[in-house]
């Protein structure tokens, strides 16, 4: 395996409270890696810290084998990341926002490529973001992650707010981009996407890795998705019970 992205004993605080606790994970180049876990399990904090959008309190972050922990701005430049759709500037158009991300709107659209078709982005380009629905804003935010053309992209629950057709088209477009060499990391709530599209993954609970899923585990999940779903839900229930007991 050639590692594109990795962390060793990574720790992150949110408002002074541990949100990520000693997470060590490795993502292979040209693979789709999925993170699952209950709300509050640390998925977003972990991804934001890796992508340079949040400060790291301990551990290391590696990009292509190089320790980039101290270079938060460098990580933000090297990794495409979808902003919070609700925080996109309401007064600007999608075209203008993409131009800001990439330095030029035409260059941004070329980098987004076929992802734009899956997102049905064209009708949104010259619409003010404030006039867009939640789902339309989500489409624009996802496009922003690809606009600068990085080889590593992180998406935090990209299928939220998308209708079934858009989610289906985006899932297939993302898989095609990964097949072409993109390294993709996504937080997911959808076990079907994890098992069918990802080559590796991990389950987080209380800021820690509770279960790692390698290619063999996900291949097994694809052969019997119902059993995989049942086992994973049982594991998540067990983790939730542990958290409740520890806070009682």
Précis, in short:
The chain has ten helices and ten strands. It is an alpha/beta fold and 248 residues long.
Question: Can you walk through the features of this model?
Answer:
With 248 residues, the chain is α/β, with parallel strands linked by helices. It has a single domain (3-84, 151-247), classed as P-loop containing nucleotide triphosphate hydrolases (Rossmann fold, 3-Layer(aba) Sandwich), CATH 3.40.50. Helices cover 43% and strands 25% of the residues. β9 and β10 (208-213) form a beta hairpin. α9 packs across α10. The termini are far apart.
Descriptors for this entry?
about 250 residues; alpha/beta; Rossmann fold; six-stranded mixed sheet; four-stranded antiparallel sheet; about 25% strand; globular
Average pLDDT reading: 93
Beta percentage is 25-35%
CATH architecture level-2 label: 3-Layer(aba) Sandwich
- Which residues sit in consecutive blocks of at least 5 with pLDDT less than 50? none
**What is the class in the CATH system?**
Alpha Beta
The structure class reads alpha/beta
Give the overall form. globular
Q: How far from one another are the termini?
A: 42 Å
List the helices and strands and how they pair.
Elements: E1 3-14, E2 17-28, E3 32-36, H1 43-50, E4 58-63, E5 66-67, H2 72-78, E6 79-81, H3 94-102, H4 105-112, H5 114-119, H6 134-146, E7 152-156, H7 164-179, E8 183-187, H8 191-197, E9 200-205, E10 208-213, H9 215-223, H10 225-247
Parallel strand pairs: 3-8, 3-9, 6-7, 7-8
Antiparallel strand pairs: 1-2, 1-4, 4-5, 9-10
């Amino acid at each position: 395996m050639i590692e594109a992205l990795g962390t060793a004993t990574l720790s992150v605080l949110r408002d002074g409270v541990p949100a990520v606790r000693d997470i060590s994970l490795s993502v292979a180049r040209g693979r789709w890696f999925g993170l699952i876990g209950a709300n509050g399990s640390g998925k977003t904090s972990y991804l934001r810290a890796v992508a340079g959008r949040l400060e790291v309190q301990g551990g290391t972050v590696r990009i292509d084998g190089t320790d980039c922990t101290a270079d938060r701005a460098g990580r933000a430049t090297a990794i495409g990341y979808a902003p919070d759709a609700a925080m996109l500037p309401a007064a600007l158009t999608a075209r203008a926002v993409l131009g800001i991300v990439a330095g030029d709107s035409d260059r941004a659209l070329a980098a987004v490529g076929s992802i734009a078709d899956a997102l049905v982005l064209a009708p949104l380009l010259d619409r003010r973001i404030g006039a867009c629905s939640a789902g339309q804003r989500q489409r624009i935010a996802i496009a922003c992650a690809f606009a600068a053309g990085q080889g590593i992209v992180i998406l935090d629950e990209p299928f939220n707010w998308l209708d079934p057709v858009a989610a289906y088209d985006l899932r297939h477009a993302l898989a095609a981009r990964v097949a072409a060499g993109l390294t993709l990391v996504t937080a997911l709530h959808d076990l079907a996407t994890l098992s069918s599209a990802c080559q590796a993954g991990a389950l987080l609970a209380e800021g820690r890795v509770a279960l790692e899923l390698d290619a063999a585990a996900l291949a097994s999940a694809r052969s019997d998705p119902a059993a995989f779903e049942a086992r994973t839900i049982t594991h998540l229930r067990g983790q939730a019970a542990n958290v409740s007991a520890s806070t009682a």
